[in-house]
Amino acid sequence: MLVLGIGLLVYSLRAVTDICHKDTSLGWRILRSLIVFFIMGYLGVFYYLCDRDDIATADIIFCVIMLFGGGFVVLVTRLSLLSLLKVEKLVISERNIALHDTLTGLPNRKYLIDSLSHQVSKGQPFSLLLIDLNRFKQVNDALGHYYGDLLLIEVGKSMQDHLPRTAQLFRLGGDEFAVIDTQVDPSSIITTINTIHLALENAFSIETYDLLVGASVGVSHYPSQASEIGQLLQQADIAMYSSKRLSAPFCVYDQSLNSNAAEKVNISALLKQAIELQEFELWYQPIVTMNNQQFYGVEALIRWPRPDGSYFCPSLFIPIAEQTTLINQISTWVMQQVAKDMVYFDSLGLALCIHINLSAMDLHDTQLVKKVSSLIKNNHSSQKVMFEITESAMMIDAEQAKQTMNYIARLGGKFSIDDFGTGFSSLEMLRDLPIQQIKIDRSFIKNIHHQDADLAIVKSVIYLAKHLACSVVAEGIEHQDTSNLIHSLGCDFAQGYFFGKPMPKSELGQILQLPLSSIS
Fold it and tell me: Which run of H or E residues covers position 286?
């Protein structure tokens, strides 16, 4: 019994030693010392009994107690070790969950920051790639988040399988991913980027759908371009958005991109001031009826004058405004100014359809319906209002756009699809949304005499619009022969420099009172 008790104590000593390796608390080290002391005591008792000729009953009882004592120590130490191992496994699991994306199983943003910190601490060069998926938003809006999530899982798997061993993939959230590549030479980075695009080259089969996505990639290098994590992330982000804006496969950060970012911040600040001080001007471009060559209406176009007398280009400041709620304030100002100008057009005896552009952000403005209601209900003039929206604006949140447009349509508002053919709208949207007009983008008009494909597209759009009971406007008419061709194809209205450039309302008032033949 004593030998067995000694064996149990030795076994428990191993368990306590394992615990001491995991937990350096003083109590466990004391327990280990006590177990060693007990083993020595058990050995002493064993030798004492071996020297005796007879064993008394009391000695047997004492040995039984010592055996059970050894068993008790084993039980306590083994259970303590098992509990500690369970806690350790739970901590590892929790840490793994905290550092990995629950949807794709890829390392997450926190893991990326930790990895970047580790790479920076080593002082070895590496590259950071930020990846934003193209066309994923359309998939999510059209099919729902369920299919969007399944697509993200497959995208993550495909990129993970294609990346070289030097690169590690992370998911930052939404449709954004990141890659840390320990290579920095241009050829190796291009190889990594090519593998990313190769991974997204084929359509992903998600249940009954075959879905295609692309990627915009921004690259920044450590330490040649950035020595801090925040700066590295910012540079890669700027490069990624530049890649998306230019529709380029990738973009490597350089100082000029940073200058553009600084310029955008400056313009954003100036925009706020311009809105407060109402520095904008509203110009109008004529729209002509093709059948009788009379003025049908005008498109309201915002202009922002510079102190030197020139003007900021709308293509420069409108996208910046659309990234914030500033675009909502600008659209509010436009509608208020249009309401004032309607009185002026009335005084000239004109009856026009005034086209007002709305952005994607406007369709998500909870106050838009109220603003439009105020414009339409307070309009006691002979002027009408048509709201122009782009295909891409409707696609950002198709359900929200449909709901907002239906509200406005019930108030008496009408809608025209601007830049038709350049976005991703479907025939289903044309069928379900309250659309009264389609504007053919100028990119299809300018080469209509030389490109058979453009001519075919224009013919198809006009045919489609007629059967959907929509009128058609051709944008970008600059020559008489283009006007004649558009007229012969059955287009209802035309707009372009041939009929008149955008101009202030005072100049427009003089133009609209003249015969069209004397202008063109």
Answer: strand 281-289
Quote the CA–CA distance of 391 and 144 in Å, as a whole number: 19
Q: H/E element holding 210?
A: strand 209-211
Of 3.10.20.70, 1.10.1200.10, 3.40.50.150, 3.20.20.450, the CATH number of 275-519 is 3.20.20.450
Pairing, β 503-504 against β 493-495? unpaired
- Burial level of 258, CB count in 10 A (0-12/13-18/19+)? middle
Q: What value does the mean pLDDT of the chain take? A: 85
Q: Which residue has the tokens 């033949």?
A: 517
Fold of 109-254: Alpha-Beta Plaits (3.30.70)
Question: Per-residue confidence at 501, pLDDT binned at 50, 70, 90?
Answer: very high
Give the integer Cα–Cα distance in Å for 163 and 186. 16
- Alpha-carbon span 490 to 494, nearest angstrom: 11
pLDDT band at 509 (very low <50, low <70, confident <90, very high): confident
pLDDT higher at 374 or 7 = 374
| DSSP bridge pairs for 303 | 281
* Rounded mean pLDDT, 227-256: 86
